[in-house]
Amino acid sequence: MLLSVLSVLCAGAAAGFGVAAHGLRSGASENQALVDGRATQAVVQQTSAAVRTAFSYNHADPAATREQAQQVLIGDAVQQYNGLFGEVERVAVEQGLQFATTVRSAGVTRLVDDRAELLLFVDQQGVRAESPERRSGSAQLGITAQRVGAEWKISRIEVL
């Protein structure tokens, strides 16, 4: 009797471990960032370029700056960008502010089908019209990107 109970328990545990192992393997194999270097590199390059475009600013032509940013943003990122840059635009025009964003490091944490999640470390250097002194700052961004046709566009922005 005891042997029968132990056999049933062992069989149940083996089945449970098998299901758990399959879940771990299928999740890892689903994440192409772990196995497809070429696709991952394309996401990093295009998303980094999109971040440089969206987070660089020239007070001399705010409409062009906004239009360029809108070309690399979709979905929630459009509203997030508008919320972040509404105040920046007002201050930038008043103070003659210009800044450029550089992506220092970027990594894809998840890439599944046409959706990617990235972590980016960025630097911004800015200058005001009345002062030649350059100012700089750094930030970490959590970015979700969506492939639209052949291009990766930013669909969500999270300042970390």
Describe the structure in your own words.
The protein is α+β, with helices and mostly antiparallel strands. Helices cover 48% and strands 36% of the residues. The chain contains four helices and five strands. Strands 1-2-3-4-5 form a five-stranded antiparallel beta sheet, sandwiched between helices. A hairpin with a 2-residue loop joins β4 (131-148) and β5. The longest helix is centred in the first third of the chain and has 29 residues, at 2-30. The radius of gyration is 23 Å and the shape is elongated. The protein starts with a helix and ends with a strand. Mean pLDDT is 84; it is low at 1-14.
Secondary structure layout plus pairing:
Elements: H1 2-30, H2 37-54, E1 57-58, H3 62-71, H4 76-95, E2 98-112, E3 115-128, E4 131-148, E5 151-159
Antiparallel strand pairs: 1-2, 2-3, 3-4, 4-5
